[in-house]
Amino acid sequence: MSPIAPLSLSLRPLAPADLPAADALRAAAGWNQTIEDWRLLLELEPDGCFAAERGERLVGTATTTRHGAGSAWIGMVLVDPAHRRLGIATALMLRCLERLEAAGARSVLLDATPAGRPLYERLGFRPVAALARWEGQGTGAEVGVGAVAGAARAAWAPGPHRRLRAAGPADLGSLVGLDQRTFGAPREPLLRGLLGRSVRALVAEGAGGLAGFGLLRPGSRALYLGPLEAVSEEAGLALASALLAGAGPGPVFWDIPDSNAAARLAAERLGFRPQRPLERMVRGAAPPAGDAAMLFGIADPAVG
Ligand SMILES: CC(C)(COP(=O)(O)OP(=O)(O)OC[C@H]1O[C@@H](n2cnc3c(N)ncnc32)[C@H](O)[C@@H]1OP(=O)(O)O)[C@@H](O)C(=O)NCCC(=O)NCCS
Predict the structure, then answer these.
(1) Is the CB of residue 172 below 6 angstroms from any atom belonging to ligand 1?
(2) What spacing in Å lies between the alpha carbon of 36 and ligand 1's midpoint?
(3) DSSP string for residues in 2-65
(4) Whose alpha carbon is nearest atom 48 of ligand 1?
(5) Which one of 22, 119, 168, 301 has the minimum C-beta count within 10 Å?
(6) pLDDT tens-digit profile of 58-82?
(7) What is the total count of domains within the chain?
(8) Per the domain annotation, does 222 fall within a domain?
(9) pTM
């Protein structure tokens, strides 16, 4: 019997009709994003998300997201378990890098799982920060409202110049401003999309203006807390606990940079525990210079 001819690999732009198959790869990897998250990635970069096909079957994905002119993110690098170790992820990464270099991105970032890290190292990515996925629970009426409200009250006593309130579309400009200080690059289209998809969005107002903001959005396995950005430990804790108080008793994921001790402490106080590591990696120029102390929770491993 003659050997089965290897199926050829083709790469092409990901299309809206691919999203159910792409989301099946996401589910097979146990990741938390939803089809709405895929839709946002495609809306942000209609020509910058890629599919790998073998024999008309979608077997791999990767997405790019540009943040301003100079920096960009690669995410959703997923390969069907039955088609791994054939160079598919490498081919997808090279396509993403080619596109981003042509678009002028000097610094390309990603958040690597332990499985992805060797692949990225071979492509010239180097680690710049460690993060961890933390898991906890919402604290809606069913679980411990008093205790959490107490912790938040102690941290952030409301006063004439200090309050938490719901964020709306009119807040987008100030959210984008604070995010640019934190992240170091402009991310207005991303924040607009995430704000529109949030189940709860809060801002902290302080005497000097916006002291922080936080979003909570649906996920396939758990609600996702992030981005969460704040100018002080107190504002970060108050925002996190108020977001969780509206979340009901189900699981919540929150990705926190290891370097932010205040954020880790807030997560511990709210009953969260680290679940798995992620490595932030960069290729090319140094990442945009933001204020890491303000980053209490990233937006998503797929976009930074
Ligand atoms: C990580 C992941 C994307 C890799 O996909 P992949 O298509 O298997 O990756 P590649 O084939 O390009 O490279 C994987 C390995 O196969 C090797 N390889 C590539 N082509 C090969 C071939 N023809 N024969 C034998 N080995 C091969 C590569 O050298 C690499 O070796 P390593 O294990 O020493 O790193 C995939 O395992 C996956 O989807 N994991 C779950 C999701 C995840 O963690 N994604 C990364 C997010 S940051």
Answers:
(1) no
(2) 27
(3) PPPPPPPEEEEE--GGGHHHHHHHHHHTT----HHHHHHHHHH-TTSEEEEEETTEEEEEEEEE
(4) 112
(5) 168
(6) 999 999 999 998 999 999 999 999 9
(7) 2
(8) yes
(9) 0.93
